[in-house]
Amino acid sequence: MKISFFHTERADWGFIIPSTLIWATSLLITAWDFVHLQGMTYNFGVVNTLGLSLFLIGVSMRRIGKRTLGKYYSYGLRTRKNSSPKESISTSDTPSP
């Protein structure tokens, strides 16, 4: 049985799919405009290298965290009824030694 934390209503798909297609198309048109119409040349400098490095470090940290947490990893925030953050930490699902 698969547990889904984010349930999308069937009625919402009529909005989600077209809006995603419009968003992706606008990105492609923007890139095409800069490259072909404005003749943009891309220079890969120090700031670009730093940004790409930080992005890759962030993606790596997320993948390591996801692999480490295993089944306890969640894309969404889950809360239990009538619990405080302190209780959640002290009553973890892992057995104590």
Range of helix content: 55-70%
Count of DSSP H/I helices:
3
Radius of gyration from the CA trace? 22 Å
Class from helix and strand fractions: mainly alpha
Rounded to the nearest angstrom, the distance between the terminal CA atoms is: 31 Å
Shape: flat
Q: Give the overall pLDDT as a whole number.
A: 80
Subunit arrangement of the protein: single chain
Outline:
The protein is mostly helical and about 100 residues long. The chain has three helices and no strands. It is about 55% helix and about 0% strand.
Write a structural description.
By secondary structure, the protein is mostly helical. Helices cover 57% and strands 0% of the residues. It has three helices and no strands. It has helices at residues 13-37, 46-69, 85-90.
Itemize the secondary structure elements and their pairings.
Elements: H1 13-37, H2 46-69, H3 85-90
Keywords:
flat, mainly alpha, 3 helices, 97 residues, 0% strand
